[in-house]
Amino acid sequence: MAKGEKINFSTPSGFPEFLPSEKRLESYLLDIIRKVFESYGFTPIETPAVERLEVLQAKGNQGDNIVYGIDPILPPNRQAEKDKAGEGGSELRGLKFDQTVPLAAYIARHLNDLTFPFARYQVDMVFRGERAKDGRFRQFRQCDIDVVARRELSLLYDAQIPAIISEIFEAINIGDFLIRINNRKILTGFFQSVGIAPDKIKTCITIIDTLEKVGEPKVKHKLEQEGVSPEQTQKIIDFIQIDGDVDNILDKLKHCSQNLPNAEQFSLGVTELETVIAGVRNLGVAENRFTVDLSIARGLDYYTGTVYETTLLGHEALGSICSGGRYEELVGTFLGEKMPGVGISIGLTRLMSRLLKAGILQVLPSTPAQVMVVNMEEDLMALYLILSQKLRQTGLNVVTSFDKRNLGKQLQLADKQGIRFCVIIGSEEAAAEKCSVKDLQNREQIEVSWDNLAEEIKGRLF
């Protein structure tokens, strides 16, 4: 770079950067999510940001995701080392685009060190080379849970998922939401019964999954392009639009299973869905928080059973705010054995940005500090430090003002950062072992002794 040439220090497109008030909100949301995950016994893990491309692309794992490759960039004075730096196939490594594929590799690497069913959560960053736009990022934080077993996994784990989703979003207090539940076996079985060719079923399910986004006419057109007849297409559309309350839909599905030809797969899906719904109810999830929606398919091929999507009512344009499902083959890819799993993912970065924009969430104050000990006289700094430390030892978050400024400016600074209380001690207060406490929320100012200071502040805070 030529001397004096300006450096473009803006963030690359699609790579978000938070202000302190936004980062504190993210931390607050993460604390809620972790607490709920751990209340159900999920344990944290972390996998490398970089995986081998053969892992990311194994058996179609990559899907439509664009992977960022990793290649070392050497400084000008070390170009002779280029070949050596590339040894081991650096071009064959990439940044992870989700948490599920790395989970499969993690289990394969640590199989003998884990107990099963293995319930884990991750809150790592993932990377996708898609076009950056509103609410879509190239780097974002995902909050995932998965339970993986060897050979068999109880459907009650599927039932736990809506309970976990419900607890998280109720704790965040984002308003009314609806967890939409379906089973891929029902869709697969129905497509079989109406005569869709076996090699076309997964493609047709993927098309159905776009119904909400593209509308009925486009879905019909795409199905017909796959060789589905108009009669078959209409049967499919009519089926996925079956509605009513949960029990009503389950009754209709049981009736269908008695009248459809070749309904074994369909009936199995209905039975599994009934088991999951019973478990959801036994776990105390409110009836207005979940429903059966036969249009929910989850476009990813690896889902084989229960699937979920969560919608924020009144803000449906946000899309699914939490989704996932059950899979049978994905995790066992690297071991050659059946390892069924079920999980969900919350794309926290995307969700937070959209909820902030919609006014559903508000940023937090830029600092966690609740108290500022202001600097009235430099000679009293030792006292300010001692008192600040005593307040911290009672559990309060405290900022000590080290710079001597006008009192009004110090109060303005505290107010701007969202610090509620300012402790003011001048020479007279120091002699009397008292202080003034300014409550910047209601503009009230009181006098209190040093011994009662922490109790007084905490009483007003909590």
What would you note in describing this structure?
- This protein is α+β, with helices and mostly antiparallel strands.
- The protein folds into 2 domains: 20-357, BirA Bifunctional Protein, domain 2; 371-461, Rossmann fold (3-Layer(aba) Sandwich).
- It has 17 helices and 16 strands.
- The chain has helices at 20-39, 53-56, 82-85, 100-109, 156-172, 184-193, 201-208, 211-214, 216-225, 230-240, 246-259, 264-282, 348-357, 381-393, 407-417, 427-432, 453-461; strands at residues 43-44, 50-52, 93-95, 118-122, 125-127, 139-148, 177-183, 290-292, 303-312, 320-327, 341-347, 371-373, 398-400, 421-424, 434-439, 444-449.
- The strands form 3 sheets. Strands 1, 4, 5, 6, 7, 8, 9, 10 and 11 form a 9-stranded mixed β-sheet that branches.
- Strand 9 (303-312) and strand 10 form a beta hairpin.
- The longest helix has 20 residues, at 20-39.
- 3D shape: elongated
Number of domains: 2
Q: Biggest β-sheet: count, sense, barrel?
A: 9 strands, mixed
Terminal residue distance: 55 Å
Tally of helical runs:
17
Supply the CATH architecture of the largest domain.
2-Layer Sandwich
Q: What oligomeric state best describes the polypeptide chains here?
A: single chain
- Considering the protein shown, what is the CATH homologous superfamily of the largest domain? Bira Bifunctional Protein, Domain 2
